[in-house]
Amino acid sequence: MAFELSEDQLKTAGNELKKYLPMSQQVYGFLVIRNRVRSDPVRRVLVDKWPQFRVIMCKPQVEQKSDLFKDTLLFATDAAVLEEILSKSSVFDWSKYFCVGTSVSHTEIFKAVASAKGVPCKRVAKCYLMTLEDVSRLPPVDSSGISVSSLDESHIGLVSQTWKFGKDDVAVGLIRNMIANFPSCCVLDAEGKPVSWILTYASGAIGMLYTLPEHRGKGYAKILVSSLAKRNHALGYPVYSFIEEENAVSYRLFTNLGFTEDPSYREAWFRVNEFQIFQ
């Protein structure tokens, strides 16, 4: 029902996903970066068939509780095949917690399968997909007198405590992996402590943008988004972000920097058996 791709097949899959951009952006971005960075834990990439797949999933290994925050990334061109995989395959263990990032158009499928299996399924986010097609057209940003650096392991706790989806330190593993393996940017105060920051997910999306309340209104977010966009572009990564629909401030920030959205597409995250992760 689902087959794991080899290293050579991953390259072919990436080329196939390019045909479906921007809808396939998250899975495509993950494959682009996976060919260059071996982060921990490595996700298995599964398809319904090969080479003309209709469903492709990037599924993380779960070795400890904090790994649960590493979402499965999913792209599908055939809703019926997706529903069959969710219902009948062993890809997902519906008796345990898992989280999936995919198109909001699959909402009813997830709800229906979860209902049939008698388990709770909750959509925890619905986001705009914001992409930056031409990094060279980023507006000029004045960072004079501001210390811009990268996050390091000593900053993991700070980022985890302020992330809205983190709780009781269970997101520490995800954030440690992001800081260790993917680009990040932060503004440091006079004592060398981060007061504003942004990270890169394993899929290439930039996010977790946050500024401490007492340092807001100084233009730090604009500086960091611009800096990280340029850095990721130089590495050959796609430059994009997910902005929650209710986050008007971030939407305006990214739009002013030249990011655009496809009005016909939204990304969503679904959590199954969410209560288990915080037990």
From TrEMBL:
EC numbers for this chain: 2.3.1.-
Keyword line: Acyltransferase, Transferase
Alphabetical list of InterPro entries matching this protein: Acyl_CoA_acyltransferase (IPR016181), Glycine_N-acyltransferase (IPR010313), Glycine_N-acyltransferase_C (IPR013652), Glycine_N-acyltransferase_N (IPR015938), GNAT_dom (IPR000182)
Recorded GO MF terms: glycine N-acyltransferase activity
PROSITE patterns: GNAT
Broad enzyme group: transferase
GO cellular component, one term: mitochondrion
Domain N-acetyltransferase: 146-279
Family membership: Belongs to the glycine N-acyltransferase family.
Keyword Transferase: yes
Database matches in CDD domains: NAT_SF (cd04301)
Record protein name field: Glycine N-acyltransferase-like protein
A Pfam family annotated for this UniProt entry: Gly_acyl_tr_N
